[in-house]
Amino acid sequence: MVKLYRVMMFLIVTIMVVGCAAPNVIHKDYTNQQITISTGGLIDEQQFYRNYGNFILDHFPGIEINVSNTDNSNTEDSNKVPIDLVVLPWNQFAQLRNDDYLQDVTSYVMRDRFDLTQFSDSMVTAMKDGDEGLYGLASRANVDGIFYNKDMFAAMQVDDLPNEMTWKELLHIAAQFTGEPFGIESLSLSPEELLLNMASLLFDSAGTAVELPEQQWMEALEQVVMAHQLGAVTAGMGELFIEEKAAMYRGMLVNANRFATEASFNYGFVPEPVDPANRDVSQSLYFDLVLAIPKESTQQELAWEIIKTLMSEDVAEQYNIQARNINSGAHISTLKSKMYDYADLSLVPFWEKQIVLSEARYPASISDSFIGELYTILQEQLQLAIEGQLTTEQCYMAIKEKVTVAFDKEKLREFN
Fold first, then answer.
1. Averaged over 352-363, what is the pLDDT?
2. Reduced to 3 states, what is the DSSP secondary structure of residue 369?
3. What is this structure's pTM?
4. What is the pLDDT of residues 301-349, one digit of tens each?
5. Rounded to whole angstroms, how far apart are CA atoms 231 and 194?
6. Where are any strands of DSSP class E within 205-294?
7. Given Cys at both, which of 102, 219, 253, 270 links 135, Cβ 3.0 to 4.6 Å?
8. In a 3-state reduction of DSSP, which class is residue 174?
9. Above 90 in pLDDT, residue 194?
10. Radius of gyration, CA atoms only, the chain
């Protein structure tokens, strides 16, 4: 019996010692391994390392990263450079996917049982080519919206901002606050920019004609001119909002860091106004740079491991810590466990709408020269209308005439 007791005690102690010992974790050494990552020249090397590179170096010790500025939108140029992984904006992603430049990673997902359901459904859908293929993943999203002073709204007996509204509806609310406090403060709501948010320039498929739909433009012009005449819209970077001299502020989510410490009132945050013709599509959320693997990559396995790491819960938590610094931006993880709140603000309404690959406002064939001239025309004619020197109809006719002339010059420029 004593011997049996001693044997049992020996086994128990052995199990406790072995079970409690720290596991012998072996980190793979990636010394002498290189990977070439293209940013398309749209972010500098410092931004790349802050947002992606440093996380790669942390999880792949010893790896050497070659950052390339190859223009990913030029598939011929891209194929000449041995790129292993691309980090690109989603308009470039869509083009390269359509050009058959990117690797379908579905086989890697299935092999590794990589759970796509843990991510935003809209993100995964946007990365696919219809119902087939998965050509990239986005680890983060950017968020724009409207901050509003809930205390000021209550004092003025104005209802809280809804989670869905058009620009027309927002300007109607802003018009209830005129002068000081102003209705809405923003750096990106100049008369011309606001007008282009509400009215469309329609280019034909060949890029040879441009149209300004009269009813749409007349209504938008009237609302924009009136909003600026009443003082419902003003330029600023949030100071007026903090000082309670503006009831609303249009800007990026990162401003929540600042308002949390400097604002002495209760505030809310709702999505950007929607397009009345596409109410189900979000105008507030857009995915950050997309991670994808070129078909010609010689390091596809390593590139896939890097993508999985950048999509992980661990890196998502590091992004959240990084986002609390106002100087680094406020990117939201696309992980469902991380994407619904930020700085005590609920982001649930932002994710309720479809998020689609955004189309450029102008065809690729349109030059910067024409766009610059367009903004000058809108700025000059709108200012005349705001000052009362032009009626809405006169303003529309002047804009239409001058834009037509500018576009005729644009067509001539293409032939020369």
1. 74
2. helix
3. 0.84
4. 999 999 999 999 998 888 777 766 655 556 789 999 999 988 889 999 9
5. 14
6. 210-211, 233-235, 246-252, 267-271, 285-287, 290-292
7. 102
8. helix
9. yes
10. 27
pLDDT in tens, 78-118: 445 689 999 988 778 888 988 999 999 999 999 999 999 99
What 8-state DSSP symbol labels residue 52? I
| Token pair 């419902």 in the structure block, residue | 232
> CATH homologous superfamily of domain 34-139+288-334?
Periplasmic binding protein-like II (3.40.190.10)
Vertex 344 angle, CA 342 and 350, to 5°: 50
The residues, ordered by sequence, that sit 6+ positions from 177 with a Cβ below 8 Å of its Cβ are: 152, 156, 183, 232, 246, 247, 248
Q: What is the mean pLDDT of the chain?
A: 85
| 3-state DSSP percent of the chain in helix, strand and coil, to 5 | 45, 20, 35
Residues in a beta bridge with 202: 211
In whole angstroms, give the CA distance from residue 222 to residue 195: 10
53: tokens are: 């590179």
Question: What is the distance of C-alpha 18 from the center of its chain?
Answer: 49
Q: For the chain, what's the residue count?
A: 416
- One-letter amino acid at 406 equals A
Sequence spans of domains, the chain: 34-139+288-334
Spatial distance between the Cα atoms of 326 and 242, rounded to a whole number of angstroms: 16
Predicted local distance difference test score (pLDDT) of residue 91 = 78
